[in-house]
Structure formats: C-alpha cells, structure tokens
Design brief:
This protein is α/β, with parallel strands linked by helices. The chain contains 14 helices and 8 strands. Strands 1-2-3-4-5-6-7-8 form an 8-stranded parallel β-barrel, surrounded by 5 helices. It binds phosphoenolpyruvate and manganese (II) ion.
C-alpha cells in the first residue's frame, strides 16, 4: 500500500510527528483565518476544520456546510497550508474535491456504517486525494479494516488511519477510551499504513491532550490530529477539548520522540532497577498489612465490623482514576487493590479472632 508519507512527512524534522491541526468546526471566515494564520506561524502544515458535523443529537451545531469551502480555500491561498475536512456523503466528497481540499477524513460515526463508507468510496473513484479513516465508534477492528479496504478498492492509494478512541457505557477518564491494543493490532495487520492519533476526541478534555500525544508517540504512531482554536472556550463545538495554537506548540515542544533503535542502557541495569522496585513494593505491602492489623485491633475494641464497603468502593474508584492519570489501566489497578484488600481483610479477621 502506497502511503501518505510524501504529503505528510516532507520536510519534517525527526523530532516532530506528522501533524494535522485546526478547529473542530469552521465557524466563520474570520475564525478560520485566525486559526490558520496562528497555526501556520507555528509550523503546522496541514489544517483541519469540520464543515459537515455529524452530531450525536439534533440541535447541536451541525456545521456551516459547503459555505465554508471558500474560507478553507482562502486559508490555503493565503497561508500555504494544506486543507483537510471530514466527508460523510458523496456530495461532500464532490464539493470538497472541487474546492481544492487536499485531504479528507472519514468520521467515526460514518466508518461504523458500511453503506455510507461505500457511497464515499464510489464518489472518490477517479480522485487522487489522501484519505484518513477514523476508527468506528465501537471497538470493532474488522469494521475499521473493512472501511479502509472499501476506500482502497476505489483506487485511493494514499490512505491512513486515525485512532480517536471508542465509546463505552462506563464512565471513564476519557471521552472515548483509547483501548490502545486495537490500533496496535491494526498496525500489526497493516504495518505500512500511517497511523494517526486524535488525542482531542479520545481525551475530551484539554489537560489530557499532552499525555495522550506522548503515549501515541511512545507507541510508535506516525502522526497526530489535534483540535486547535484561537478561543477554545467560545468554540461552537467540542469546547472542552480544543486548545490554543500556543498550547499546541508547547505540547509539541515537550514531546519526547524516542529512538526505536538500540539504547545505551543495558538490559541488566534495567532488570536491577525492576528488582529494586519489587523490594520496595514488598516492604510497602508489609507495612500496609501491619497498619491493617492495628485497624483490626481498633475494630475489635470498638465492636466494629471488618468490612466497610462504602469506604472500599470509594477507595477503588479514586485509585483507579489516579492510576489512569499515571498511564496505567484502571482495571489493572482495581485488580491489584482487590488482591491487597483481600489479604488485608484476612489479616484483620485473624486479629479479631485472637
Ligand atoms: C471531528 O474530528 O471533529 C469529529 C467529529 O470526530 P469523530 O468522527 O472522531 O467523532
Ligand atoms: Mn470535534
């Protein structure tokens, strides 16, 4: 599969990922131009702005539609940025291509529908435009690959994927949980396919953009697509997750791009560090159990029950959330705490029985 490298990676320094940035939605010509100028001035080369916005519920801002195409064309003309937008129907494809849009992406709600993807694929036939396919809203790798195949079968050679997280019924730290194993498996199955991360729609909140960008880089993603707006708090859509061009620049500056080739650290040294961590863990656990036994004594003296489920539930939820902020899986943290708690209860029961 030919890839997007010629358009996305030309002239990049190795310390910066391929980047697409711009507002969630084009709102007004002034807003588009202000964002385009600010981003171009900071080295961004591909500008995103949604014109047709698929909203989960009616009544939200559904985009300015084709009326925004001349604004994007002006941004391209005056700043030299390449322009990208979402296409969800055959008409969107035709209008965007006619207006000189340089890159199209297919949104998560569209990827979930094979009829819609096929309609877009048919409309793309004969056009030589790069296309990025977002994952479907549900964690369904085959559906994602199927959409990529439909676009590929229409003759599109410059193809890539965007990981934007998956919606789940559970409340979580994220707007859409990353489930990194799915894009990693996509990469294993299609190693030539450039893979982008969309931290904005995964995180849903400004403060999560930086750590998500770093995680994507650590997992070997090729690029990032980030929502940026000059006045995020006044944005007409996805307010909480948009960042200013200045904030984006700061995040990119702080990104650590690790070399994939040999490191200077020896494996022995790293294993020794792991052993030290385990020593400390054991020591800490023993101390925690000693405290548990003292609590057991207190409960015995005051005739209190061992199990206090409210406090335990609260503790589990809080620690799982904290663990996620630290880059660990919440479910993993719960499992660890549950095991510790079980042993702690056993120790308290022992004290009570003494
Ligand atoms: C977007 O990129 O603004 C968008 C609507 O994203 P998604 O399709 O991932 O929800
Ligand atoms: Mn958005």
């Amino acid at each position: 599969m030919e890839n997007l490298r010629p358009i996305l990676f030309a002239g990049l320094t190795p310390r910066r990922p391929a980047l697409i940035a711009g507002p969630c939605s084009a709102e007004t010509e002034e807003q588009v131009m202000a964002a385009a100028r600010a981003l171009a001035a900071r080295g961004v080369r591909i500008f995103r702005a949604g014109l047709w916005k698929p909203r989960t519920k009616p009544g939200g801002f559904e985009g300015v539609g084709a009326a925004g195409l001349p604004w994007l064309a002006r941004a391209k003309r005056e700043t030299g940025l390449r322009i990208a937008t979402e296409a969800a129907t055959a008409e969107h494809v035709a209008a965007a291509c006619a207006a000189g849009v340089d890159l199209l992406w297919i949104g998560a709600r569209t990827t979930a529908n094979p009829f819609a993807v096929q309609e877009i694929a048919d409309a793309l036939r004969g056009h030589d435009i790069p296309v990025l396919v977002k994952n479907p809203v549900s964690p369904d790798l085959e559906l994602w690959i199927g959409a990529l195949q439909r676009i590929r079968n229409a003759g599109i050679r410059r193809l890539g994927a965007i990981h934007r997280g998956f919606s789940t019924a559970d409340r979580s730290l994220y707007r859409n949980t990353p489930q990194w194993s799915i894009p990693i498996e996509l990469h294993r199955r299609l190693p030539e396919l450039p893979l982008f991360c969309d931290p904005s729609h995964i995180g849903g909140r400004r403060e999560l953009i930086a750590p998500l960008c770093q995680q994507a880089m650590d997992l070997g993603f090729d690029g990032l697509i980030v929502e940026a707006h000059c006045s995020p708090d006044e944005a007409w859509s996805d307010r909480a997750q948009q960042i200013t061009p200045e904030a984006l620049d700061e995040i990119l500056r702080r990104l650590v791009i690790r070399r994939t080739t040999a490191t200077t650290e020896s494996l022995d040294e790293l294993r020794r560090e792991i052993d030290e961590c385990d020593d400390e863990l054991l020591e800490l656990l023993a101390r925690r159990m000693r405290i548990s036994r003292r609590i057991g004594q207190y409960k015995r003296e005051h005739s209190m029950p061992v199990l206090q489920t409210l406090r335990y539930d609260e503790l589990l939820a809080r620690r799982a959330a904290e663990a996620e902020k630290l880059g660990m899986d919440g479910a993993f943290m719960r499992a660890v705490l549950q095991a510790i708690h079980e042993e702690s209860v056993r120790q308290q029961m022992e004290v009570l029985g003494e």
